[in-house]
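Marked as duplicate of an earlier ticket. Keeping the data here for the record.
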Amino acid sequence: MNLFKLNRERTLSALLIAVSIVSVFTVIVPVEASRRNVIRVPEDFSTIEEAIVAANDGDTILVGPGKWYGAIVNKAVEIKGMGEAIIDDGPTHPRYSWIHFGFKLESDGSGATISHLTFKGLELPIYGFMVDDVIIEHNTIYNALQGITNWDGDNWVIKHNVIEGIYGSGGGGLGIFIGSLKEDYGASGNLVVHNTVVAQVPDDRTYSCGGICLCADARWGAKPGEVSNNKVVHNKVVVTGPDTFALSLEVIGLGDLSELEESEYARVIEYAKGRLHDNIVGFNDVRGSTNPIDVIPEELKEVNTISRNLGRNRGHGVVPAEIFKPVKLIIS
């Protein structure tokens, strides 16, 4: 066979293989992309709930200007406000009829994103229980009992939110809460960054209030998992009034530690350290808050990093590289 002809045939074969590969990818990519739909409220569906029912995991739901009823989020969807989209009503708490959710994230909602929305007058605007990999960003929350709540969820990113006017009523009173009730779950790997929490609590308050809280809750016989490796950095928190705090790390439900004998006290402290540890609280601005940082029990300071917060320990603590080295912050 002619050498030129042989090389030409080989080249042609190679080109055909390459074209086949490209053709496969040009077919597959649009098919996959077509499954990620954009659904508009109210153009496509009149309510957010109807849009979620119709959506698939990965779809984006754009919510137009106006006042809207919230929903149960049980899919990995992105819910994004466009213009002045306000959530001012939503699903009722199953036990307390006076408490309303804006968005209640359930386990199938892992991977969801909620952004660019305004929440007004809701007790629990954004609430998740045993939900992972959630992004909450660029929202504004007014007058909430508990602004953003993450029970037993890992790897949330809570960033660039503004929360104003939190209050307490026999409970709640928190801007951003990350905590655990379930021993087999816990709350780890969460990032709280570049948020603003502002509250002025009146003297006749019915419950203490706080800005950002990491908590293992052992009350009423609960056995919390580990609240660990969370990072609370670069937030602005101003909370004033009696029984308030800007930032807190707490293991609650331990009883009156002052009444314990030495050996029992040591046991309880070791338990607390095992529940809430290796968290970083640094570079937050808590100036103007009545009580900048609350740690219960105090020994939790030995197993968590609380460093370089303006208004409490500015310029003191570990070097910045040690705070930011363990994780790449998502701050865009």
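See parent ticket for discussion. Residues 88 and 120 are 5 Å apart (CA to CA).
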